[in-house]
Specification:
With 300 residues, this protein is α/β, with parallel strands linked by helices. It has three domains: 58 residues; 133 residues, Nucleotidyltransferase, domain 5 (2-Layer Sandwich); 81 residues, no CATH class. Helices cover 57% and strands 15% of the residues. It has 14 helices and five strands. It is elongated. The relative contact order is 0.14.
């Protein structure tokens, strides 16, 4: 009987330990701060753990995250969205680094392609990121949607040769409104957005020019921006009409960005870049099925 009790106790300890690992990992991925994890596990009837134990358990996520980040991409991916956001707080100061994410569409379904943390102003970083996606199997890209960051544009042209580039219309409108007084911003935004209500490419290009002309005298910088940006902001017109609303902006990435920001804000300051990748990678791995379950795009 003593041996049976011992075996039962061992099994219970094993279950408790597995539960503890699961709880800590889930709490970490869900954005629960390290200092609150101890209260959480005690509330569930488990023994308390130290911050160092939490860190060791969290590191067990690394294999899962690395497997997700390094997995083979089985294309083609006709549409790819790229975005950089959220300055990373590290060691009590804000370093000039950002979280970068790529998602794509394969056979009509969205998929998280990759992530990294690095200097978003650095063209070499973007080249490395995109080359990494290609080496994992990214192919068949017809259109890349992103903000108008010069280093990013250069990397797209160098690595994804033959793909068109769509300047995110949301970011573009924001850039345009920075060139007019606040009192004129609402009018300017509404006027520019009339372009995107046009039913066909010819009408959209004609409307774009009608929109630009009235600004030439009063807001010449805005008119010049409209002239220069026309082919990039209207690149979506070369693709199927029922795809337009999905491919003319980075909106398909916004839900992911909000979720990552919500969870990283709880942590606040990260000890190093590896910790950022661990948390964001775990969140994206968890969210991956959710991205795929969004309404699919028609196949090209």
């Amino acid at each position: 009987m003593h041996k049976a009790c011992h075996r039962s106790g061992a099994r219970q300890r094993s279950v408790a330990e597995r539960a503890l690992v699961a709880v800590v990992q889930e709490a970490y991925v869900q954005g629960v701060s390290t200092r609150r994890v101890d209260d959480l596990v005690q509330a569930l009837g488990l023994r308390g753990i130290s911050k160092s134990q939490v860190s060791r358990l969290c590191e067990e996520l690394d294999a899962q995250v690395e497997g997700f980040r390094a997995r083979r991409l089985d294309g083609p991916y006709p549409y790819v969205w790229l975005d950089a956001f959220a300055k990373v707080r590290q060691d009590d100061w804000v370093v000039s680094q950002a979280i970068v994410i790529a998602i794509g569409v394969r056979a009509g379904e969205r998929e998280v392609l990759g992530l990294d943390v690095g200097p978003s102003e650095d063209g070499a970083f973007w080249l490395q990121f995109l080359r990494g996606l290609v080496s994992r199997g990214l192919n068949g890209v017809q259109l890349v949607i992103s903000d108008a960051h010069e280093d990013l544009k250069g990397a797209i042209a160098a690595v994804l040769q033959g793909a068109s580039w769509q300047r995110c219309r949301v970011h573009f409108v924001s850039n345009a409104l920075a060139l007019v007084p606040k009192s004129a911003a609402q009018m300017a935004a509404a006027t520019i957005r009339t372009v995107f209500a046009q039913p066909d490419p010819m009408s959209a290009h004609e409307q774009w020019r009608r929109v630009a002309d009235p600004f030439r005298e009063r807001y010449p910088r805005l008119a010049r921006l409209l002239d220069d940006a026309e082919p990039d902001v209207l690149a979506y017109l070369a693709f199927p009409t029922d795809h337009w609303r999905q491919i003319w902006s980075n909106n398909p990435l916004e839900r992911l960005n909000r979720e990552i920001k919500r969870r990283t804000d709880v942590v606040g300051i990260f000890p190093n870049t590896d910790a950022v990748v661990r948390l964001v990678g775990a969140v994206l791995s968890e969210q991956h099925d959710g991205v795929a379950s969004q309404p699919p795009l028609p196949q090209c």
